[in-house]
Amino acid sequence: MRRLWRRPSGWQVLWLTVVWTALWGHLSLGVVVSGAVVGTLVLVLLPLPSTSLGFRVHPVGLVAFLGGLLWDLARSSLRISWWALRPGPPPDTAIVTVELRSSSETMLMLTTMALSAQPGSLVVDARPGTGRMTLHVLGAGDQPQATAQRDVSRQEALVVGAFGTRTDKEELG
C-alpha cells in the first residue's frame, strides 16, 4: 500500500522555519515555534513529489572540474589578450560540430555552460536528442575539428566526473 504522506525532512522544516522567521522580521520563541509548526504542516499536507535532479555531486571530481575550469579560463583569457594586442590579422575561426559521449541532457547543459564561460569559444547550438554541439572557435588552428573534439571531450569528462551519475560515467568509458 502506498503511503499518502511522507515524513518531512528536518532540513526542510528548518529552512521553512528560517523563512518564516525572516518574514516576521524579528526573532522570538513564539515566531520560531510557530514557524516550525507551519513548516511541518505545509510539508505534510502539501508534499512535493520526489524527483531526481539527474546529477550527483562528487567532491573530488568537483575540485578537478573547478581546477580545470579555472585553468581553461586563465589560458583562454591570456590567448585572447595576446591576439588582441599583437599586430597582424586576427586568428582563424571555425564553426565545428562535435559529439558528446554522454546522453544525459544535464551533462550536455553543464558542459555547454562550462564551454560558453571560456573566452574564445561559443556554443552556437546544442542538441539534447543527438548529443551534438556546434561551436564557434577562435584560434582554430590547422585541425579545428580534432582540436575542438578533444577540448570538448576533456571538458565533458571533467563535468561528468564532478556531477555525473553512474550511467553517465559508464557512457564515457
Helix content: 55-70%
Q: What is the 3D form?
A: elongated
The average pLDDT score comes to 88
Largest β sheet strand count, sense and barrel closure: 3 strands, antiparallel
Low-confidence stretches: none
Distance between the termini: 40 Å
**Number of distinct beta strands:** 3
Q: Helix/strand-derived class?
A: alpha+beta
Task: Report what the structure shows.
The chain has 173 residues and is of the alpha+beta class. A 3-stranded antiparallel beta sheet has the order 1-3-2, covered by helices on one side. A hairpin with a 4-residue loop joins β2 and β3. α1 packs across α2 and α3 packs antiparallel against α5. It is elongated, with a radius of gyration of 23 Å. The model has no long low-confidence stretch (mean pLDDT 88).
